Amino acid sequence: MSKLLEKMKMDLVLRGYSKNTQKTYLDNVKHFSNHYGKSPELLSEEDIRDYLFHSISVRKLSCSFVNTAYSSIKFFFETTLNRDRNMKNIPRVKKAKKLPVVLSKDEVKSILALTSNLKHKAILTTTYSAGLRVSEVCNLKISDIDSGNMQIHIHDAKGNKDRYSLLGKANLLVLREYFKVYRPSDWLFPNELTLAPLSVRTIQKVFQDAKDKAGIIKDVSIHSLRHSFATHLLKSGVDLVYIQKLLGHTNIQTTSIYLHLTSKDILNIISPLDTLGE
């Protein structure tokens, strides 16, 4: 790693950025530098604009990815180099407001029932039961499972925050069965060869295989279990503020997207056409 990137890493640590964010920001600046074959401090505002445009129009990268690259480059110039690259002249990508795709309870039940591998079943059950991000599932330790208080302790989650989520009774039964067979010693779901935590990609594939086996054709990912957790709680009458805390959202506006996914109250509205004869 170059001295500049070492300094950037130190700046990220001093600012309290999570390890995942540190890695993402450093990787983004490396990609930016490699794109031009130059050290990043030699690149101009126009180079930044062209790089972001290329990422959108040629590489077809997502809005989230491009906006994270934007933030990474901005941090590098403004914080690490203490230079003003006038990033205000370079607009961020406007993110499309798409509703997340949610699985029904029957679909979740089918996915879990058809997952025969006990370790895979434990992973998917825990993801849905506690509404976890895939990175949070990867980083769970045995000590994070608090069966006395029926809660799961999530460390260093998004935004470098700790929180607690639910440990469901059915989830605990599956975890106990899993523990008896696999006997993990530190990480809850380790790679059996390296004993390091399973990778995000491995868990994503576990979900995709289970989804395909269940015959679900919706465009869903492992993260859809988290969306489903929140939506199913909201439909059952749980207050939005509690769901916000369980998900670890800083802003309740982020959680409020699930209001658009629940049809309980909307379906009780009577069409004006049906009242014309009254």
From TrEMBL:
<comment type="similarity">
    <text>Belongs to the 'phage' integrase family.</text>
</comment>
<dbReference type="Pfam" id="PF00589">
    <property type="entry name" value="Phage_integrase"/>
</dbReference>
<dbReference type="InterPro" id="IPR004107">
    <property type="entry name" value="Integrase_SAM-like_N"/>
</dbReference>
<dbReference type="InterPro" id="IPR002104">
    <property type="entry name" value="Integrase_catalytic"/>
</dbReference>
<feature type="domain" description="Core-binding (CB)">
    <location>
        <begin position="1"/>
        <end position="81"/>
    </location>
</feature>
<keyword id="KW-0233">DNA recombination</keyword>
<dbReference type="InterPro" id="IPR050090">
    <property type="entry name" value="Tyrosine_recombinase_XerCD"/>
</dbReference>
<dbReference type="InterPro" id="IPR013762">
    <property type="entry name" value="Integrase-like_cat_sf"/>
</dbReference>
<dbReference type="GO" id="GO:0003677">
    <property type="term" value="F:DNA binding"/>
</dbReference>
<dbReference type="InterPro" id="IPR010998">
    <property type="entry name" value="Integrase_recombinase_N"/>
</dbReference>
<protein>
    <submittedName>
        <fullName>Site-specific recombinase XerD</fullName>
    </submittedName>
</protein>
<dbReference type="Pfam" id="PF13495">
    <property type="entry name" value="Phage_int_SAM_4"/>
</dbReference>
<keyword id="KW-0229">DNA integration</keyword>
<feature type="domain" description="Tyr recombinase">
    <location>
        <begin position="98"/>
        <end position="271"/>
    </location>
</feature>
<comment type="function">
    <text>Site-specific tyrosine recombinase, which acts by catalyzing the cutting and rejoining of the recombining DNA molecules.</text>
</comment>
<keyword id="KW-0238">DNA-binding</keyword>
<dbReference type="InterPro" id="IPR044068">
    <property type="entry name" value="CB"/>
</dbReference>
<dbReference type="InterPro" id="IPR011010">
    <property type="entry name" value="DNA_brk_join_enz"/>
</dbReference>
<dbReference type="GO" id="GO:0006310">
    <property type="term" value="P:DNA recombination"/>
</dbReference>
<dbReference type="GO" id="GO:0015074">
    <property type="term" value="P:DNA integration"/>
</dbReference>
